[in-house]
Amino acid sequence: MKRYPIQIFIAAAGLLLATGCGPPPPEPTVVEIPGYEALQEQFTGRDMSPLRGRRIVLDPGHGGFFKGAVGQNGLTEAEVNLGVALYLRGLLEWTGAQVYMTRTADYDFLTATDSTLVSDLAFRSSFSDSLQPDVFLSLHHNSVASLDRTVNETQTYYPLGSDGASLDLARAIHRHLVINLEIYPAKILPGNFHVLRNATVPAVLGEPAMISNPVIEGRLKQASSQRLEAEAYFLGLLDYFSQGSPTWSGARLDTVYVAPDGPATRVSWTFFSEDSLRSSGPGPDPGTFDLKLDGRQVPFHVTGQGHIVNWYPSEANLDLPALLELRGRNLVGRATPIRRTRLMPVPPRHVKLHLMPEHPHGDAMMAIRWSVAGNAPLAKGSLVFSSDLALPLESGTSGVALLPLPAGIPSEVSFHPGSGEDSILNCDIHTTELPAPWQWRMLLAGDGSTGGPWSLRTWLPDSLPAGLAAQTVPMIPYEPG
Ligand SMILES: [Zn+2]
């Protein structure tokens, strides 16, 4: 529906002074507040397949206790952000994208023991981090304290100092916000907001308009404007993914242990043009590859027809611990997410336990994942939990086991080496208790006896507390053994 621009008469004071016998009143100054007229681009005829299967986290800013910016007539940013996000989710899911929302209703992420804004924001970051989506998009609307009714602006933020994939994403989204919302001025800006600073995937925070402007507030209240904004974001995401989504092999952050006097090691990464859902994408541009060791460029070797980057710690002056950052772009200029690798000195031998208590039927059982690492690891020995409970470790340097633990979670476990020449080690214990209503559950293979192969999964009981949607339940980042 075509909406006519609202006109504001600023020269009202002049009109008040005018009388029947005075000079004619001055022409009123008409100020139009552009924005949210109608979608300027076409949806039909576009190839939507680049969005299929993409994993996208949408973060409608604020909610619950936190209303965000509030318009002069009472419209809250939290409700507009959510409205836009719900429209955008619908559009994205229509193309086959997988959408995860940090919230789907009006609530916050405060707990009984922590009621700070930081904890609300930290939830959003860890939610996204645990999912490792293709992109993270936080939806907001800005405000200014000024009562100047002409102030309005589109702002698209990317994480400060992150000029790769996040900036590509910001540019793609910004282009379509500007074309379709028609708000000026419009700026792409680096931002140091919590959710951007802590993002571990390409991330953007959008502030398409000022809710503090009463004209804009009136438009944002309408579903048609929220839908229009969602459509602009949608076209931006489609644009972004249409140019491929190159990545490096492996997790986006991992750790490599380097023994300065040990055998020569090689660290290598493979460039993937596209994810497994798409057969091909634009290939690598090795001329854009960039490897930094603690911020300074270091030489590397490219093989595999430009797809493999190798780096040898022995070729560098290493001062451990150190951080490697690998960047690159594909042939059409789309950046990979930054691939980070921590370099750590090989630690002295230690035993790491990951304890996962579960209480499915009243019997206290606990799964443990154990690993023996460090210089000359010795796997043979036993883990001693208490005077009457010891777990012999016969082979390998890592494993999993299931133990009955009627006395609860132990705070101290020791490793007794099998050969007498080594001393007893205290274990590093990491415990992951899931927040209610999540539980650990064992999935047993074969005849269901606990002696058979089994795996541990997070388990969500069927009945959730009112107001809690499955997607909004906190997820614990799983620490690999
Ligand atoms: Zn906000």
Written overview of the protein:
It is built from 7 helices and 27 strands. With 481 residues, it is α+β, with helices and mostly antiparallel strands. The chain has 3 domains: 34-242, Aminopeptidase; 247-345, Immunoglobulins (Immunoglobulin-like); 350-472, Immunoglobulin-like, CATH 2.60.40. Strands 4-3-5-8-6-7 form a 6-stranded mixed β-sheet, with helices on both faces. A hairpin with a 6-residue loop joins strand 18 (350-358) and strand 19 (365-373). It is globular and about 110 Å long. The model is unreliable at 1-20, 444-454 and 468-481 (pLDDT under 50). The protein binds zinc ion. The site of zinc ion (ZN) has 5 residues, from loops.
Question: What layout of secondary structure does this protein have?
Answer:
Elements: E1 7-9, H1 12-17, E2 30-32, E3 55-60, H2 77-94, E4 98-101, H3 117-131, E5 135-139, E6 154-159, H4 165-181, E7 186-191, H5 194-197, E8 203-207, H6 214-220, H7 223-242, E9 247-248, E10 253-258, E11 267-272, E12 284-293, E13 296-297, E14 301-303, E15 308-311, E16 322-330, E17 339-345, E18 350-358, E19 365-373, E20 381-386, E21 389-393, E22 398-404, E23 414-417, E24 425-426, E25 428-431, E26 439-444, E27 454-459
Parallel strand pairs: 3-4, 3-5, 5-8, 6-7, 10-17, 18-25
Antiparallel strand pairs: 1-2, 6-8, 9-11, 11-15, 12-13, 12-16, 14-15, 16-17, 18-19, 19-22, 20-21, 20-23, 23-24, 26-27
This protein binds zinc ion (ZN).
